[in-house]
Amino acid sequence: MRDPTENDPIAHPLIVPLGDRALLVRFAATLSVAANAAATSFAKKLAQSPPDGVTEIVPSLVSVQINYDPAKISPDRLAAELSLIAWSKLNADGYSGQTWRLPSRFGGEYGPDLEAVAHASDLDVDAFIDAHNATELRVLATGFAPGFVYCGFHGPPLQIPRRSTVRNQVPPGSILFAVGQTAVAATEIPTGWHVIGQTDFRNFDPASSPPTRFRAGDRLIFERTT
C-alpha cells in the first residue's frame, strides 16, 4: 500500500469544466500530503479574493470545485484567473488552522472493529490507541455526508484497507479508520471504514452558520477517555 505521507511533487494543476457552471482545479490523481496541502492552500487563497461571478468554492482531497454564474463570467476568463493562483506558490501554509482536542472512547460498544484493526497493524489494542493518538492529524476535507471529515495522515504500520463489508449505519461521532486516515462521522451513516471509537463532538449543526466547525487545514488531537 502506498504511503500517503510521502510528499509527491506537484506538477501544473489541471483545470477542467464540470458542466456549464463549474470548473475543477485538480492538483494530483492520487492523495498525498503535498497534493492535499496544495488544494487546501489554493482554496484559501481563492476565498480571500474570489473572481466576480464565483458562487461557491468546494475543496476536496486533491482538487477544488469552483461554481460560477455564467452570466457574470465566462469559463475561459475564470480559468485564466484561476490559473494565476493555481500556478503560484502553494505549500503547507494551507494547513494552518485551529487545533481541536477531541475526548474519545475507544473499543467495546464504541469501537467494535478496534481489536481487529490493532491485530492487522501488528499491535495490541493499547499500543494501537497510543500510536493513533500520538499523531496530530490534519483535516484534509469535508465530504460524503454533512460534517463528515477526512483526517490524515498515519504512517506505517497504521495503514490497512477498508472493511470488506459495509455497516448499514454507524452513529454520529463515530471514529473511523482505514487507508492511513481517520474519519469522524457527524451524522448517522453507512460506512465501509473500521469503527474504532466515538466522540461526543458533533461537527454538524444545520441551525448554525456555517453548519460545520472543522475546516480543511485544522488540526485534530484525539484524547482517550474512559
UniProtKB/TrEMBL annotation:
<protein>
    <submittedName>
        <fullName>Allophanate hydrolase subunit 1</fullName>
    </submittedName>
</protein>
<dbReference type="InterPro" id="IPR010016">
    <property type="entry name" value="PxpB"/>
</dbReference>
<dbReference type="InterPro" id="IPR003833">
    <property type="entry name" value="CT_C_D"/>
</dbReference>
<keyword id="KW-0378">Hydrolase</keyword>
<feature type="domain" description="Carboxyltransferase">
    <location>
        <begin position="13"/>
        <end position="214"/>
    </location>
</feature>
<dbReference type="GO" id="GO:0016787">
    <property type="term" value="F:hydrolase activity"/>
</dbReference>
<keyword id="KW-0547">Nucleotide-binding</keyword>
<dbReference type="Pfam" id="PF02682">
    <property type="entry name" value="CT_C_D"/>
</dbReference>
<keyword id="KW-0067">ATP-binding</keyword>
<dbReference type="InterPro" id="IPR029000">
    <property type="entry name" value="Cyclophilin-like_dom_sf"/>
</dbReference>
